[in-house]
Amino acid sequence: MDKYINAPISDEDAKSLRSGDYVYITGTIYTARDAAHKRMAECLEAKKDLPINLTNNIIYYMGPSPAREGRPIGSAGPTTASRMDKYAPDLLNLGLKGMIGKGKRSQAVIDAIVANKAVYFAAVGGAGAILSKCIKSSTVIAYDDLGTEAIRKLEVENFPVIVVIDSEGNNLYETAIKEYANLED
């Protein structure tokens, strides 16, 4: 089912999304990859404030290529989400409501998604140039020295994603395999 939501995402919207839903996000999301996640973890260990308020926000695991003339950002495809798995439960516990990436998540992340009524979305890998057309602005807001891995604030319009793991723990990667196996029988 196609759904349209605004970001930051409300608790009600997060709870209404189901594994397999096609979702179009409009509003503000943030980017962060491995190095930025490591820095955020170091901030938390040192009892310092994070550079962004995570409450109800969405983090897109993405490091863009350089912007072409007249564009706010270059190719903006998803990064493999499992690389952020050791950091994700702590961020979810701090109010993060959604993550966008590609690939499977660990059981610890799935448990934290359910406990916090959050959502894991997948963006289509290999479609970074197309995805970038949904990004209306991009501003580095933290860790500028990390280059493409800096935290960016993105304004997006109808950014297309698929719900992989919903707030109840339903996992599209598991259910799709079962459905396909039943088709073969």
Report the sheet with the most strands, covering strand number, pairing sense and barrel closure: 5 strands, mixed, barrel
CATH topology: fumarase
Helical residues, percent: 25-40%
Can you identify the CATH superfamily? Fe-S hydro-lyase, tartrate dehydratase beta-type, catalytic domain
Task: Using the 3D structure, state the CATH architecture.
Answer: Alpha-Beta Barrel
Low-pLDDT residue spans: none
Q: What is the total number of structural domains?
A: 1
Instruction: State which percent range the strand residues make up.
Output: 25-35%
CATH first level: Alpha Beta
Question: What global shape is seen?
Answer: globular
Oligomeric nature of the chains: single chain
Largest sheet: spatial strand order = 2-3-4-5-7
What's the pLDDT, averaged over the residues? 93
Order of helices and strands: EHEHEHEHEHEEH
Structural class: alpha/beta
GO molecular function, one term: hydro-lyase activity
InterPro entries: Fe-S_hydro-lyase_TtdB-typ_cat (IPR004647), Fe-S_hydroAse_TtdB_cat_sf (IPR036660)
Domain Fe-S hydro-lyase tartrate dehydratase beta-type catalytic: 6-175
Family: Belongs to the class-I fumarase family.
Describe the structure.
With 185 residues, this protein is α/β, with parallel strands linked by helices. It has a single domain (2-167), classed as Fe-S hydro-lyase, tartrate dehydratase beta-type, catalytic domain (fumarase), CATH 3.20.130.10. Helices cover 28% and strands 27% of the residues. A five-stranded mixed β-barrel has the order 2-3-4-5-7. The chain is globular, with a radius of gyration of 16 Å. The two termini are 26 Å apart.
